Amino acid sequence: MIPVTIFAGRDVAVLGLGMSGLATLRALKAGGANVLAWDDTEVAREEAADAGFLVEDLSNYDWSRFAALVLAPGIPMTHPIPHWSIAKAREAGIEVIGDIELFFRARAQAGAPGKVVAITGTNGKSTTTALTAHLLSAGGKRVALGGNIGKAVLDLEPFAADLTYVLELSSFQIDLSPSLKPDAAALLNITPDHLDRHGTIKNYARIKSRIFSNLGPDATAVIGVDDEPSRAIADNLKGSFAVKRITVGHEIKTGVWVERGVLHEMEDGKEVANTDLAGIRSLRGAHNWQNAAAAYALARSQGLSAATVAERLKSFAGLAHRMEQVARRGKVLFVNDSKATNADAAGKALASFNDIYWIIGGRPKEGGLAGLESFFTKIARAYLIGEAAEAFAQQLGDAVDHVHCGTLDRAVEAAAADAERSAAKEPVVLLSPACASYDQFDNFVKRGDAFRELVMRLDGAKSITPEEGRVA
Predict the structure, then answer these.
(1) Taking the CB of residue 79, how many other CB atoms lie within 10 A of it?
(2) All residues at 6 or more sequence positions from 421 whose CB lies less than 8 Å from its CB, including other chains
């Protein structure tokens, strides 16, 4: 845990008592703050009270006593409407911040020991964050992984000169972190997402770009330039820090680009090194080439040699629920891509396979399946579940054979039976829902876990080992 002493002896409100909220309570209490906690759900309030924290209904509290409101990233600040606490904080003239902001203020107070590598983007940030941590750790560095992945940031190890923090950051976390100042930062991509929380793609991109706002002269900015919003941000980056562009399919002057699975590191128009990603199953597909390029650039910015990074890429096992190869049943491959909660993310999986028996649906995002039409010829059949079923059936129309299954268990059973009858060399049963999970599951993790369990119940299903999932 990282004790936060900047509010010692002062009252602080903490709203939202999930994983990061509870970590914030512990860190502030350890640092001497007087912490008052609240959550809009009774279960979360009871958990905090059982842990020994003071839980008060902050809607009836004197907010002039607070030094700050520490807000959980899931609570809306602006859209669709601000949470009631935002108005209370503004009326009292107190700042609204998040746990990432506490981390960076505490680090600055400690003299900014060690290093911080921060990663954001609409898609791929979890894989890139985990891969970056893997490369640095395998390269001999002591690493703490957290933020929007794994542990809450304030539950990580205390600051130390030899420690590198590798943090995944969501747009919500960045929006609450004005002092965000990493030693290396990456923005992978920007596509429409979370617009219910940010209003417009322009505002969403503006918030994402703030990951680069406070970079120092020795820092490195890594930025994907394969989409227009990210490219515009790259073109407007100004500062004495190094800028490394990332792209798939287009040669660049300085940064890392990937062509047909071969990664090229460039500096001022000259190739410094290259490595072939072919055969690394955990980095299959063009989207994972982008992830690998960004992680490569970040690892190099922290002093690892090109040869070390190239070798360590081969030992990355990948992440659960992100194009995770979970089992085989005869010639049929089962892939869990439950993390694909929007069309753009699902498109990455569709681009990576052929002869696909596609399980889709849940709570739909704006646009539904729009943009995936070019992949329809790769789909043998689609299996529709959840709230999106009717709308998705209309979008697929006659272009893709589809069937209404309603629930995931029925979809797995039907897709497995159809795939088994396929004449294809390696038919793929792919859960890549292009939807949020909340209509039938608490989160994408539980949805993916359910898929894995259902697959393993099938007669003849054999799980794929981590080694089999890494290298062909």
Answers:
(1) 14
(2) none
DSSP count for the chain of H helices, then E strands: 16, 23
Question: In Å, how far are 253, 257, 286, 375, 405 from 249, measured between CA atoms?
Answer: 13, 7, 9, 19, 38
Kindly report, residue by residue over 9-52, the tens digit of the pLDDT: 999 999 999 999 999 999 999 999 999 999 999 999 999 999 99
Helix (H) or strand (E) segment spanning residue 448: helix 444-456
Q: Domains of the chain by range and CATH? A: 11-97 (3.40.50.720), 103-313 (3.40.1190.10), 324-470 (3.90.190.20)
Please give the Cα distance from 338 to 362 (Å, whole number): 11
Strand partners, 266: 255, 271
Pair 349, 335: CB distance under 8 Å: yes
Residue by residue, DSSP assigns 181-245 as --SEEEE----S--HHHHSSHHHHHHHHHGGGTT--TT-EEEEE-SSHHHHHHHHT--SSSEEEE
The structure's pTM equals 0.85
Q: What is the pLDDT of residues 441-472, one digit of tens each?
A: 999 999 999 999 999 999 999 998 765 655 44
β-bridge partners, 166: 117, 145
Q: Which token pair is 193?
A: 């997402």
